[in-house]
Each structure stands twice: as C-alpha cells, then as structure tokens.
Amino acid sequence: MSRASTATLTHSPNSPPLDFSPSPSPSPPPARVFPGLERPPSAPSLLVNWIARRVHGWTWQAFSISMGTGAVHITLSEVKHQSSAFTRLQIAFYFIDMVLFLLNTSTLLLQALLYPRQARRLVMDPTNGLYVPLIALSFATIILGTINYGHVGPRFIYILFWVYVALSLFLCMSMLTIWFNKPHDMSQFNPTCAFLIFPMMLTGVVAFNVLDVMDASDVKSLGVLLVGYFFQGLGSFVTSCYICIYFYRIMATGFLDGHQANGAFVNVGPPGFTGLALINLGSHAQGILPAHALVSPLAGEVWYGASVLGGLMLFGLAVFLFVFSALPYWFKVDKQLHSILDCWALTFPNVGWISTLHVLGDTLHIPGFYVVHDVMVVLMCLTWLTLSVFTVLAFWRGEIFMARGEEVVRDSLLGAIKGHHRGQHQDQDQVGVEEGRNHHPRPPGAPRMRANFTLHRLSLRRA
After folding, report:
1. Closest to 344 (Cα-Cα) out of 58, 69, 92
2. Where does this protein have compositionally biased stretches of type Basic and acidic residues (predicted)?
3. Which domain holds residue 174?
4. CA-to-CA distance for 329 and 346, rounded, in angstroms?
5. In sequence order, what are the residues at sequence separation of 6 or more whose Cβ sits closer than 8 angstroms to the Cβ of residue 34?
6. How distant, in Å, are the alpha carbons of 40, 400, 417, 426 from that of 429?
7. Is 25 exposed, middle or buried (0-12, 13-18, 19+ CB in 10 A)?
8. If DSSP codes are grouped into helix, strand and coil, which group holds residue 183?
9. What predicted TM-score, i.e. pTM, was given to this entire model?
10. How many Cα atoms within 13 Å fall on the side-chain side of residue 184?
C-alpha cells in the first residue's frame, strides 16, 4: 500500500481532508520600475539617451568650475608687470569663463523644462540648494572680466551692476527663506552654507570695479559707492556668524573631513573679499565724497584711512583661515573623483586675500607683497590646471553630471503616467457619483452621503 493511501486510511474523520497534490511554486514578485508602477512581464528594458542622463544629472555646483576659471583671469589681471601675451592669456580664460557660464545656465534651463521635478528637487535640497547662488558669483566674474577686457562704455557697466544687485537680492533672499524653513543639525554644519549670502557680500567688490570706469563727479558714482558699502557690510557681518558656527563645529567634531574638508576654504572668502572691497572703496571715496561736498572736506580721507586699517585686519584673518584650512587638508579630504567638484573651493574663495596682497603693495609701498602675490597667482593657475584635468576625467567616466537611467525615466514619465491614472480615477469617481445620484435620489431632509460611500454601495449592489 502506498504512503498516500496509508495517510488517507489513518486520517481522522473529524479533521479536514488532506491534500497531497503538489503545491504550486511561488511566483517571483513583479519587477518594480519605480514605486507604484509595475513593469509588465514582457516589457523590454528602457534605454535612456546619454544626453538626457547628462541634462538630468547637471547640478548648480557646476558653476564652481566657471567661478574657478574666473578666479584665474581676475588674479592674472592684477599682476604688476603685464605684457600683450599675458593679456591674451587672460582674455582666453575670460572667454572660457563665459562659455562655461552659458553652458551651465542653458543646461539647467533645459533641465527645468524637461525634468521640472529634478529641477525643483535640486533647489529644495538642503545640500544642493546651497549652490544655487553660485550663478550670481559666476556672473560677477564675467562683469569683472568685461570691465578689464571688454570695449564697453561706463553706462553699460553701470547697468550690469544693478542687474547683479537685483539678481543677488533675489537669489539670496529666496534661498535663505527656503533653507531656514527647516531645522538643521549643527554637528553637520558645512561652511558652504555661507554661499547663501556670498552674492550680496561680493557687491562691494563689483562696486569698486565699476567705479574704476566711472567719473567721480557723476552722481551715479555716489550711488554705486554707498550701495557697495551697504551690501559689503551686510554680507561680511552675516558671514562672520557662519565662521563662528564653523569654529563651534570643529570644536565639537574636529577638523572637517571627506568632501567637507574643501568647504573649510570657503571661510577664507568673507574676510578676504571684505578687506579688498574696503580698501578699494575707500580709495574711491577720496574723490567721490569731496566732489559732492558730503559730510566734510576730509570725509574721503577719513574713510580711506579707516578702510585701509580695517582691510589690513581682515587680511590677517583671511590668511589665518587659509593656513588653518590647509594644514589638515591632505589628510582629511576625500580623494575620489566623484568629489572633484567640491575641490573647486580651493580657487575662488582665495581670490579675495590674494588680490589684497597687490592692493596692500600699492598702498603701503612694500615690494614683498608683490612677490607673495605673484607666487600665489602661480599656485592658483596650477590648482586650476590640476582640477581641470581631474574634472574632465571625472566627467568622462560618468562620476559627475550623470544620472542613472531609471532616475531619468522616473522624472520624465512618472509624472505623466500618474497624472493620466489620476485623471482616469477622477473620471470613474465622477461617473459613479452621477450614477448614484440618478438611481438613488436623496430624500428630503436626508443627510448628504459622501461620494466614496456611494461608490462603495454601488459596487456592492453590482456584485
């Protein structure tokens, strides 16, 4: 007798009958393309265009490359001994800066049109959103290059100045509102948060460059001078709060490591640029204030003397922060290609105190400042060359500015598919409600029933 029949004979009559048929093998779960949407069994894998992945993966941090390029032509323009070949080199960097600016702007605009979900995600993200104001900083380097190399009149430069002020106000106030709308952990503070206020702080630097091509007797020069002082003071005092938070952070957790080690150099920017702006704005105040008979005949000289004193003190702070950030840098920084964009913080934030070296040499007539300035300019160019090589390599390998195919599909199709399904469900709900109202009119005085309850009752009746 077989084992199956034996089991049947010994089976208790009060128990449910035993089933010896082979159980079906469990079917594998359906493949998930993205949450809420299942791939059909016969659906082929989706192929995403290489350009689409690049556009989707582009970030606002790309402007750090154009800012670093702008840092090169700005520092080169301040070398004491110039030549025609040297000027052509600066113009080449200036055009590269403009090309990178247009490339980044057009790519991000294309991303906003094709993948609005990704564009909004970048702006609202507490980390990626910090780099949105970099577009204004990159625009500032183009303005400075236009003043140095462009054959344009003072009126056009004056218009560019107010365009920059408006752009800075819009970006800074918008991003500050978005970023401070949520709480943030102090133990995870990164000095790159100062980018939220950097464009307004850099207004003073743009202002004194604009004043270089304007007449001191023009009333517009007075407006540029006062606006430059106003926003430079605003930005420098706010960024000083970020520097205090930075020291609190490193006292609690030690030196910044990983990709955040690059952000330590961002602290060098505020005191360096503020010292540079104060000295140059004070120099222009010498001619502008007496020309308009403001305050007193000696007001311009007083402003200039106070600006040189304050600029020298801030220059010392900037040099200290640079050395303090450079000492542990090599042992703390993340040496992976995917973090190469963070390394561009080695360039632009250091422009302020490097340029102040040249200004102090002119003001105090100390040749040693020129020597140190030239050495730092060479190091700036070598840093730019090194970062450019590794950035191109990271771009070629897809370490940066490259989204995954499923991310592109999700942001390009998911919204449309969900919207289509939502529209179908709304149509079905509307039809069900109308049917419920036609077949089951509400008696006078009876309470109004909800649409979802009507649909549920209709489904039960049809079943």
Report:
1. 69
2. 424-438
3. 50-405
4. 11
5. 406, 409, 410, 414
6. 26, 46, 18, 5
7. exposed
8. coil
9. 0.78
10. 15
**Residues in a beta bridge with 333:** 258
* CA–CA separation, 200 and 108 (whole Å): 22
CA angle 357, 233, 199 (to 5 degrees): 80
Backbone angles phi, psi at 38, to 5 degrees: -100, 140
- Cβ atoms 355, 380 nearer than 8 A: no
Q: Which residues contact 11 (CB under 8 A, 6 or more apart)?
A: 17, 18
pLDDT tens, position by position, 307-322: 999 999 999 999 999 9
Other beta carbons within 10 angstroms of residue 451's beta carbon come to 15
Q: Is 255 exposed, middle or buried (0-12, 13-18, 19+ CB in 10 A)?
A: middle
Q: Which amino acid is it at 400?
A: I
CB 108 within 8 A of CB 60: yes
Per DSSP, the three-state class of 19 is coil
Q: What residues contact 417, with CB distance under 8 A and at least 6 apart? A: 37
Provide the pairing of β-strand 32-34 with 37-38: antiparallel
pLDDT tens per residue, range 9-59:
444 445 445 444 444 444 444 444 333 334 334 333 357 788 999 999 999
Please state whether 185 falls in left (phi above 0), alpha (psi between -120 and 50) or beta.
beta
By the 8 A CB rule, do 135 and 63 touch? Answer: yes
Single out the residue of 340, 345, 372 nearest to residue 356, CA to CA: 372
Residue-averaged pLDDT of the chain: 83
Q: Is residue 430 part of a domain?
A: no
3-state secondary structure 38-100: ECCCCCCCCCCCHHHHHHHHCCHHHHHHHHHHHHHHHHHCCCCCCCHHHHHHHHHHHHHHHHH
In angstroms, the CA 398 to CA 402 distance is: 6
Residue 150's identity, in one-letter code, is G
Structure tokens at 405: 């195919």
d(CA 270, CA 198): 8
Q: Does residue 423 sit within a domain?
A: no
Lookup: tokens for 156: 């056009």
Residue 320 lies in a domain: yes
**CATH code of the domain containing 325:** 1.50.10.150
Let me know if residue 333 belongs to a domain.
yes
